[in-house]
Design a protein that fits this description.
Number of strands: 12
Order of helices and strands: EHEHEEEHEHEHHHEHEEHEE
Shape: elongated
Structural class: alpha/beta
Largest sheet: 5 strands, parallel
Mean pLDDT: 84
CATH class of the largest domain: Alpha Beta
Number of helices: 9
Distance between the termini: 48 Å
Length: 344
C-alpha cells in the first residue's frame, strides 16, 4: 500500500506496539502510528489525530476493547476497528465482530495484520461508494418527483390563468353590460350565467386531478372507473378496463394512491402524445403481487431515446417507493406497453 495511513493503536506495552509497527512496515504498509493507553487519550486522538484505522488491545489498565469499540461506534466514524490482542476466547471474538469490529488478530499471528488492514479499508471504501451511489440515486428520484410536481402545478396554474380566468372575465363583462343596458339585461345575465357554469365545470375537472380519491369510501377500482370515464368523455378515446381479483383490503391507501396516480400520469401521456384510438388498462392481483398494465395502439416511440421524460421518471419513482418494478415496451408505429409489478 503506497498511501501513508494514520493508525491509532490502543496498547499499553511498548514492545508490543513496536512489534506491530515493524510487522506493518514489513507488510508494505507505511503508517503514522499514535499509541495511547487510556480512555482520555483515546477519545482525544479520535478527534485530533483523525485516524484511518484503529487497532485495539483487549485489556488495558483501566480500559478494554469493548469500551473502546462502543466509543468508536458512537463517533460515527467509518474506518476499520481491529482487535489486536493476546489469547481470547472464540466466543468473545465473535461477539466483538457482531458488535461492530471489522476483524481480530492474535498477537502470535501478527503476520495477518497487514492483510487484515488492507481488506478492511477496501471493504469500507466499497461500502461508502455504495452508500454514495444510493444517496445519488435517491437524490435523482427526489428531483424527478419535485420536477413532476412543479410541472403539475405549472399546468394547473396555466389552466386557471388562461382558461378559467378568461371564462370568468367574459362573465364579468356580460354583468357590466347588463348593469348599463337595461333593455338587454336578461340576455346579458343569461350569457353571464352560462360562462359561470362553464367555470364551475372547469374547476370540477381540475379537482379530478388535484384531489386524491377517498379510497375508504369508494375504493380504488371505483375511483379508477370514475377517472377513466371522465377522461373518455373529455377525449373520446376508447378506454378498455379489466380488473382481476383485486382486493382493496390487501393494499394500504398509499399503494392504492400510487396506482391511481400512475394510471393518471400514463393516461395523460397517452392522450397527449400517442394518438392512440384504444387504450387497455388492467389491474390484476395474484397471491404474491399486484400487476398494473396499460397498453395502447398509438404511434409508439424508441425506448432507447424516450425513457428519460419527467412523466416516465415520475412513474418509475412512484413504483420504486413501494418496491415495484417498471417494464416499458414500445417501438415506432407499434404502440406502447407499460407494466408495473408491486410485490405483496
Amino acid at each position: 500500500m503506497s498511501k501513508k495511513i494514520k493508525i491509532l493503536h490502543l496498547e499499553d506495552i511498548e514492545t508490543d506496539a513496536d512489534l506491530v509497527h515493524r510487522v506493518l512496515k514489513k507488510g508494505g504498509i507505511e503508517a503514522e502510528l499514535r499509541v495511547v493507553d487510556n480512555k482520555e487519550a483515546y477519545v482525544a486522538a479520535l478527534i485530533e489525530f483523525a485516524p484511518d484505522v484503529i487497532l485495539s488491545d483487549h485489556t488495558l489498565p483501566s480500559f478494554n476493547s469493548r469500551e473502546a469499540l462502543n466509543i468508536f461506534l458512537q463517533s460515527g466514524m467509518k474506518i476499520p476497528f481491529i482487535l489486536v490482542t493476546a489469547t481470547i476466547s472464540e466466543e468473545y471474538a465473535v461477539s466483538v465482530i457482531k458488535a461492530g469490529a471489522d476483524d481480530y488478530i492474535l498477537k502470535n499471528h501478527l503476520e495477518r495484520l497487514p492483510e487484515a488492514i488492507i481488506n478492511s479499508l477496501e471493504k469500507i471504501e466499497s461500502e461508502i461508494s455504495l452508500e454514495n451511489r444510493k444517496a445519488m440515486n435517491i437524490k435523482e428520484k427526489t428531483n424527478a418527483v419535485l420536477v413532476a410536481h412543479e410541472l403539475e402545478r405549472s399546468q394547473m396554474a396555466n389552466e386557471l390563468l388562461e382558461n378559467i380566468n378568461q371564462i370568468l372575465a367574459a362573465s364579468n363583462l356580460y354583468i357590466d353590460c347588463a348593469i348599463s343596458e337595461e333593455d338587454k339585461r336578461l340576455i346579458f345575465m343569461q350569457n353571464s350565467k352560462k360562462y359561470i357554469l362553464m367555470a364551475i365545470d372547469e374547476i370540477k375537472k381540475l379537482s379530478h386531478v388535484i384531489m386524491p380519491p377517498t379510497f375508504e369510501v369508494i375504493g380504488l377500482i371505483d375511483s379508477l372507473n370514475n377517472w377513466i370515464t371522465f377522461k373518455q368523455q373529455q377525449n373520446g378515446m376508447n378506454l378498455i378496463t379489466e380488473w382481476k381479483n383485486f382486493n382493496d383490503r390487501v393494499t394500504n391507501d398509499k399503494l392504492q394512491l400510487t396506482i391511481y396516480r400512475i394510471v393518471q400520469e400514463q393516461l395523460n401521456n397517452t392522450i397527449k402524445y400517442s394518438r392512440a384510438k384504444n387504450v387497455y388498462i388492467s389491474l390484476q392481483q395474484t397471491s404474491d403481487a399486484i400487476e398494473l398494465l396499460i397498453k395502447d395502439d398509438g404511434v409508439g416511440f424508441d425506448t432507447s431515446k424516450n425513457t428519460k421524460g419527467v412523466g416516465l421518471q415520475n412513474i418509475n419513482t412512484r413504483a420504486e417507493i413501494h418496491n415495484g418494478t417498471m417494464l416499458l415496451e414500445s417501438q415506432p408505429g407499434k404502440g406502447c406497453v407499460l407494466k408495473i409489478v408491486f410485490p405483496l
